[in-house]
Design a protein that fits this description.
Blueprint (H helix, E strand, L loop, with lengths): L2 H5 L24 E5 L2 E4 L4 E4 L2 H4 L8 H13 L11 H13 L5 E6 L2 H16 L3 E5 L8 H6 L4 H4 L9 E4 L12 H18 L5 E6 L15 H12 L2 E5 L23 E4 L10 E6 H4 L15 H16 L2 H20 L5 E7 L2 E6 L12 H13 L2 E2 L1 E3 L5 E4 L7 H17 L3
Parallel strand pairs: 3-13, 5-6, 5-7, 7-8, 8-9
Antiparallel strand pairs: 1-2, 2-3, 4-10, 9-10, 11-12, 12-15, 14-15
Helix pairs in contact: 3-11, 4-11, 12-14, 13-14
The structure holds pyridoxal-5'-phosphate.
């Protein structure tokens, strides 16, 4: 043993939690020993039902045996084979497999490490492919925390407010919210069309727009399911002006909404699809999918990165895709999603503080309001927080969302069982009562 090693204190005691900086805004103080399926087990042996999936990542559940085995097997062979220098088997197989699952024929994948990085890649590709500078994003959308991604993000001011100036040539169009817009019908649509016309008449010439970037279902901004006309209409607008339609499926992809890609719900073909989170069950992996002809617009060296398409992450992703197929996880996401939404509607029916219950597949949400305020739909983040805390006391981990933190969202793993959904709904019913919703 070296002198330095001998001088180190024994690792028997856990370091104080203050070693982790406070910038990680925190939902729980739990210290986790291990996870299995939908459950997290603390170092004290307490079991928590994890309906966060690590923010939509562990679709196959925690430590799925097939994913863990694929990771271990690959780790014993090759940890890192840098993309500019060599090819490796899991990388080649994953590129081919993702191309097969892409929305269009003759598509390919570019791989990187995080959702924000993938968004940056999408914007860089859209700008090169169109030769245009401007990107239009949608209000309430979240696209990540790097500079370009922050500029596109408008889910909460905390994400971007302290970091001005942000990269320019980004404009925000409204996202038509059926709850706050009084339904998804003609009134919402015509108001939204007027705003789009005004954007193009007052602020940016559509001839200069490279991309429209949108989350098919708004995630961090409050789990807002769009009216059925929105994505088809964006496709029309993009086509009319030679703009690329970029869908950010970082949270919605890999079966989360009950379809492999959320855009399949509306039969819309994007030009670039951004993916991350559920792709590799927890290993850091992300990327974009686009027609090979579009990807070819990037000159060699125009984009890249040290770790993109890491060997272990690719092995985890291949195993994840097999599990999604072999265990019928898309069908399970649809069935459990309906069960969850029905249960939440029942649980919320007596509580006037719940303004809306909504969702698609296994993205579900309760929006909390102040029914006695002048605006009875005024956001009520304090109530959402109480409900989160009551649920945690009952060993169900949930997250908030929404621009004001007024939404409680449910992101179960795609492997969740009917019994677990019933258990979660029962906890929510008790938590709503305890929180005086
Ligand atoms: N895009 C969407 C829709 C997201 O939900 C997120 C993360 O929550 C991101 C992008 C950023 O991903 P990451 O945190 O991996 O950078």
């Amino acid at each position: 043993m070296s002198d330095t090693a001998a001088a180190q204190p024994a690792q028997a005691t856990m370091p104080d939690r203050s070693v982790v900086p406070g910038v990680w805004a925190r939902y729980t103080d739990l210290v986790i020993d291990h996870g299995e399926g939908s459950w997290l087990v603390t170092t004290d042996g307490e079991r928590y039902l994890d309906y966060t999936s690590g923010i939509g990542v562990t679709g196959t559940g925690h430590a799925h045996p097939r994913v863990s085995a694929a990771v271990a097997e690959q780790a014993a062979k090759l940890l890192h084979g840098q993309q500019n220098i060599v090819y490796h088997e899991p990388g080649l197989r994953l590129h081919a497999e993702l191309a097969r699952r892409a929305p269009g024929k003759d598509w390919g994948a570019f791989l990187c490490n995080s959702g924000a990085e993938a968004v940056e890649a999408a914007v860089k590709l859209a700008r090169v492919a169109t030769g245009r500078p401007v990107v239009v994003a949608f209000r309430g959308g979240f696209h990540g925390r790097t500079a370009q991604a922050m500029a596109l993000t408008s889910s909460r001011v905390t994400i971007r407010g302290d970091f001005e100036p942000l990269p320019g040539s980004v404009y925000h169009a409204p996202y038509p919210d059926p709850y706050r817009g009084n339904g998804d019908g003609a009134a919402l649509r015509s108001a939204w069309e007027r705003e789009m016309d005004a954007l193009f008449a007052q602020l940016v010439d559509p001839r200069h727009v490279a991309a429209l970037i949108i989350e098919p279902v708004i995630g961090e901004g409050g789990y807002i399911v769009p009216p059925d006309w929105l994505l088809p209409r964006l496709r029309e607008i993009a086509d009319a002006h030679g703009i690329l339609l970029v869908v950010d499926e970082v949270q919605t992809g890999f079966g989360r909404t009950g379809r492999f890609w959320a855009v399949e719900h509306w039969g819309v073909m994007p030009d670039i699809l951004v993916m991350a989170k559920g792709i590799a069950s927890g290993l850091p992996l992300a990327g974009i999918l686009a027609p090979r002809a579009t990807l070819a617009r990037w000159a060699p060296g125009a984009h890249g990165g040290t770790y993109g398409g890491n060997a272990i992450a690719c092995a985890a992703a291949l195993a994840t895709l097999e599990v999604i197929d072999d265990e019928g996880l898309l069908a399970n996401a649809r069935a459990r999603g309906e069960q969850l939404l029905d249960g939440l509607r029942r649980a919320a029916s007596e509580h006037t503080g719940v303004g809306d219950v909504r969702g698609l597949g296994l993205m579900a949400a309760l929006e909390f309001v102040s029914p006695d305020a002048a605006d009875p739909r005024a956001p009520n983040p304090a109530l959402a927080k109480r409900v989160l805390s009551e649920a945690l006391t009952r060993k169900l981990i949930l997250l908030s969302a929404g621009s004001f933190g007024q939404v409680v969202r449910f992101i179960p793993p795609l492997v969740t069982t009917a019994a677990e959904v019933d258990q979660a709904v029962a906890v929510v019913a008790d938590s709503l009562a305890a929180a005086d919703a």
